[in-house]
């Protein structure tokens, strides 16, 4: 199931419905933004900015809300076309089972060498972040790429993401 394809505009969540969030919602000072542009020959959503640990901060997030609970139990994980510069990127999922905004499930996204990569990220690679609840792929509500490398620039682009078997 296609979630987003920036080039074609197809998918469950169009590129224009992705949003940026920073640690400023909790007093941090990280700054960034996202645009749709061509990156190394591909149409992509590109998140850039500066992640700062000042004031207990430390993240920039490029996310999409599904608008409803998505049952992805028939899939094994995600396939992501991504390009990053630097390090400290994670793929993040949220489910309807989580009640606090800081809770999520995270999987490392090794895409910091400046080249495009098609990565397969199985649901089993996601670990609970600030929750004891196990990942329930029948109740997915949000997907995000998060820049978490503290006191470092962020530059990550996403051209396509889909649920895969």
What do you see in this structure?
With 165 residues, the protein is mostly beta strands. It is built from no helices and 12 strands. The protein has strands at residues 2-5, 19-22, 31-39, 42-51, 60-70, 77-85, 89-95, 104-108, 113-122, 127-129, 140-147, 152-164. Strands 1, 3, 4, 6, 9 and 12 form a 6-stranded antiparallel beta sheet that branches. Strands 2-5-11-7-8-10 form a 6-stranded antiparallel beta sheet, with no helix packed on it. The protein is globular, with a radius of gyration of 15 Å.
Key attributes of the depicted protein:
six-stranded antiparallel beta sheet; about 160 residues
Quick take:
The chain is mostly beta strands. Helix content is 0%, strand content 56%.
What is this structure's SSE topology?
Layout: E1 2-5, E2 19-22, E3 31-39, E4 42-51, E5 60-70, E6 77-85, E7 89-95, E8 104-108, E9 113-122, E10 127-129, E11 140-147, E12 152-164
Antiparallel strand pairs: 1-12, 2-5, 3-4, 4-12, 5-11, 6-9, 6-12, 7-8, 7-11, 8-10
Can you give the mean pLDDT?
95
Gap between N and C termini, in Å?
9 Å
- Uncertain runs: none
Radius of gyration: 15 Å
Helix content: under 10%
Order of helices and strands: EEEEEEEEEEEE
């Amino acid at each position: 199931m296609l979630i987003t394809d920036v080039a074609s505009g197809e998918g469950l969540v169009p590129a224009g419905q992705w949003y940026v969030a920073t640690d400023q919602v909790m007093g941090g000072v990280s700054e960034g933004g996202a645009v749709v542009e061509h990156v190394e020959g591909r149409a992509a959503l590109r998140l850039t900015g500066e992640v700062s640990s000042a004031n207990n901060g430390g993240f920039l997030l490029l996310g999409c809300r599904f608008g409803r609970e998505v049952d992805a139990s028939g899939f094994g994980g995600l396939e992501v076309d991504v390009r990053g510069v630097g390090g400290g990127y994670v793929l993040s999922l949220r489910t309807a089972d989580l009640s606090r905004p800081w809770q999520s499930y995270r999987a490392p996204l090794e895409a910091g060498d400046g080249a495009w990569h098609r990565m397969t990220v199985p649901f089993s690679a996601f670990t609970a972040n600030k929750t004891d609840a196990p990942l329930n792929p029948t109740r997915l509500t949000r997907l995000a790429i998060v820049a978490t490398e503290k006191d470092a620039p962020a530059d990550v682009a996403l051209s396509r993401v889909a649920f895969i078997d």
